[in-house]
Design goal:
heterodimer, A: mainly alpha, 3-stranded antiparallel beta sheet, two-stranded antiparallel sheet, 30 helices, disordered N terminus, B: mainly alpha, 3 helices
């Protein structure tokens, strides 16, 4: 693509290009469907989906290569609001959102909706408080804003540290997800699949930076949303005669409630007894606060919302719009495209739950379980009676060990991993394999697009903020771009290496990203725009204190639970019985003989400590509930105790608030329209 | 800061607080009443469940399109909008 002349052409033809692309994708799905009917083995259908879609993304990435700083960092600031919305949708929805969200709703019922609410409501904060102002600022990265507004590189460095700590675990999880999906559908070795995914990610981002990532993310959004919606649209049309699953699952909810009562009456599901001895279903789908108490439910919503509004890889997408006005409407489009997936996820959960409960309710002997249970049992995602459901014999053997099991499948025997719900829906509903392949391609698109955005955020922070702004401010354009690409490569390979070791801890830390960003970035960012009096010492104190409290709570309650609880037992909100058990285990541990017995006692003690180590009962995932107020307080108190920022800075804040006029920051190497 | 700029920021802040109020309502307040709302059932959906699964989400989307429009009007009326 010849830069100077095609730049404008390409933008004005976007509608046409992506319409052809979408049409081509549908034709491709139909083509593979026909091949399947002609008897081409499933394996080749799977290969077709995975390789062809990755090849298309890579092609877009290569065509969008650039040697301009402004294009590399902010896509030349000419991405229309609508397309930037799609790109943000793909950037935002991770492999886990695509594959795991519906499963989480399946397991948690109403309480899982905290994720749906948190991950959409956050965009209100982005649009109203942050995005338009960052766009006017003209920064290349989020730390850039901190450095300019608060003067000096201290705040820049803190922002870089927060950015990397919340983005790195996240990107590892995305690369892990690509490896998992590719290995599952292509029968590749997991490690090879991880590096194959890495290659796809690098081809999309390395040559063209933000510009290339933008146009591949739009393409990836189209694939992921088609792949997510098609199976449930078909399912809804089949079951209820209307292809609008988001409307018809109300009926499914009613049926689920009836089945829950029926299962409880038959003793085929976990039940609870009330004071009068009446038996009822233990965790009804629509009943609130069965897994989270109200405090944790609302705390989680708040942390996810504020975290969303502080994640650098999302905020930097709004640097790319042509104007401040477009930045605002772009956030609205982003939320619309994200909404399409999130408001469908509860329908997925309801349809699957209906299927599973009906299966149990009609009475299914252990010998007659449907095939999908074994398909996912073999890879350890479905357990029956506590053992992987590999085949009928193993299921019968495992259930034989349970007293009064009865030989029929019961709900309490079944345990389903959250990833199974979306992946298995086509198969459970008896759709052709091509739909399952499509879902895999969608999951892959979701994971790859998020990985692209995150890698770019990390590499840009290292190359622009650390290398160019702090180490070598005189670097010529060419050197800057080489540094960006080398750092991107280095970060990507390191993340892929970490992912290939299947690090359980890192994967469980992904949810921490939201709290870390909410506590470390949000207060100083918002006050930087909305409170002129905020100054450098305040920002430094607020960021360090908020981030520090958050890290302390996350790490303390997870890895040093025993000493955390010993220090803070008076603040713990856990039940007295749980606390008494901790004391009991503590005594057992101190009196245990050295050696194996002592180690075992410690493991038991640490496990109990993790259950009681908290402040006011707040779960670890919502650490920002403490970190964020501390951050705000830090900025405010720190600022008020020191001198007000200079007139120059205050004028700059005024200019930030006004859409018209030049960008606040101008990069010497970037030839960009200023508006 | 000139008087016009002050008025622009005053109106912008006013819109911000309105949006945050709505955000607070749809993000949190309405879900405090989930149990009472669940006694109302529409097309199979208990209303409390529906609000968390769809209703509030829909409200957020509509809010943001309205916000973009309203803020743009403020910018234009106060003479600080970008050129089209």
């Amino acid at each position: 693509m010849a830069e100077a002349k095609s730049g404008g052409d390409f933008i004005s033809n976007l509608g046409k290009i992506y319409t052809y692309y979408t049409g081509g994708f549908f034709a491709f799905v139909v083509f593979l469907g026909i091949l399947e009917q002609l008897g081409v083995p499933n394996k080749f259908i799977g290969y077709g989906f995975v390789f062809l879609t990755i090849a298309v993304y890579a092609l877009i990435g290569v065509l969008s290569r650039t040697s301009e700083v402004g294009e590399y960092y902010v896509a030349g600031r000419k991405v229309p609001a609508f397309y930037n919305g799609m790109a943000t949708g793909a950037d935002w929805m991770s492999g886990a959102s695509f594959v795991g969200m519906a499963g989480t709703l399946f397991l948690l019922g109403y309480d899982g909706l905290a994720f749906v609410l948190g991950w959409t409501g956050g965009y209100v904060l982005v649009a109203v408080l942050i995005a338009p102002f960052l766009r006017k600022f003209g920064a290349f990265t989020v730390p850039d804003f901190f450095a300019e507004r608060y003067g000096g590189n201290t705040t820049r460095l803190i922002a870089v540290i927060v950015l990397i700590s919340c983005s790195f675990t996240y990107v590892v999880a995305q690369i892990y997800a690509t490896g998992l999906i590719a290995s599952r559908f292509l029968d590749l070795d997991f490690t090879i699949a991880v590096y194959a995914g890495l290659l796809g990610i690098l081809l999309c981002s390395m040559l063209g930076g933000m510009k290339a990532v933008t146009w591949t993310q739009v393409a990836q959004y189209i694939v992921l949303i088609v792949a997510y919606l098609l199976p449930i649209v078909i399912l809804s049309a089949k079951k209820f005669g209307i292809p609008l699953p988001q409307l018809t699952y109300g009926q499914a909810l009613q049926e689920i409630t009836n089945l829950e009562n029926s299962l409880a009456a038959k003793g085929m599901a976990p039940v609870i007894k009330d004071a009068a001895g009446a038996v009822s279903f233990a965790k009804p789908h629509i009943k609130p606060f069965t897994d989270y108490d109200p405090l944790n439910y609302f705390a989680l919503i708040l942390c996810l919302m504020v975290g969303t509004a502080s994640l650098p890889h999302i905020l930097m997408r709004y640097f790319t719009t042509p104007s401040v006005r477009d930045a605002r409407s772009s956030v609205a489009w982003s939320l619309f495209f994200i909404f399409l997936l999130y408001f469908s996820a509860p329908a997925y959960a309801a349809f699957s739950k209906l299927e599973v409960y009906s299966l149990i309710n009609k009475g299914t002997a252990l010998a007659d379980l449907p095939q999908w249970i074994y398909t996912y049992g073999k890879i350890g995602l479905v357990k029956v009676c506590g053992a992987n459901a590999v085949d009928a014999q193993s299921v019968i053997a495992a259930c034989g060990k349970i007293a009064n099991q009865g030989g029929m499948l019961r709900l309490q025997d079944l345990s389903i991993n959250t990833d199974v719900i979306v992946l298995s829906t086509p198969e459970i509903a008896g759709m052709p394999y091509v739909i399952a392949g499509l879902v895999a391609a969608g999951g892959l698109a979701a994971a790859l697009s998020t990985a692209d955005g995150l890698l770019l955020a990390i590499a840009n922070a290292l190359s622009h903020d650390v290398y160019y702004k702090m180490i070598n401010p005189n670097a010529p354009t060419k050197t800057r771009l080489i540094a960006s690409r080398v750092l991107l490569l280095f970060v990507a390979i390191f993340a892929a290496y970490v992912a290939s070791t299947k690090p359980a801890d890192i994967l469980s830390m992904v949810a921490w990203a939201f709290s870390l960003a909410a506590a470390g970035i949000f207060p100083a960012l918002v006050l930087g725009v909305w409170w002129k009096r905020a100054n450098t010492p305040g920002a430094i104190i607020g960021m360090l204190a908020g981030f520090g409290v958050c890290v302390y709570y996350l790490v303390g309650t997870r890895y040093y639970a025993v000493s955390f609880y010993e220090t803070w037992s008076w603040l713990s909100g856990s039940a007295p019985a749980a606390k008494a058990k901790f004391v009991e285990l503590q005594t057992a541990w101190s009196s245990a003989a050295a050696g194996a017995a002592k180690d075992a006692a410690w493991v038991a003690l640490d496990k109990q400590a993790q259950a009681v180590a908290n402040w006011f009962g707040v779960k670890n995932i919502s650490a920002a509930l403490f970190g964020m107020p501390v951050g705000f307080l830090g900025v405010i108190v720190g600022s008020l105790l020191t001198r007000a920022p200079s007139q120059e800075i205050q004028d700059m804040v005024d200019a930030t608030r006004r859409p018209s006029g030049d960008l606040i920051m101008r990069d010497k190497d970037a030839a960009l329209p200023s508006h | 800061m000139s008087r016009d700029a002050a008025r622009h920021w005053q109106r912008t802040s006013g819109l911000m607080w309105t949006m945050l109020g709505l955000w607070l309502f749809f993000g949190f307040v309405i879900h405090f009443f989930v149990n009472s709302l669940n006694s109302i059932v529409i097309a199979g959906f208990p209303l409390g469940f529906y609000m968390a699964a769809q209703g509030s989400l829909l409200a957020f989307v509509v809010m943001l399109f309205v916000f973009a429009k309203k803020q743009d009007n403020i910018d234009r009326e106060e003479g600080v909008a970008e050129e089209d």
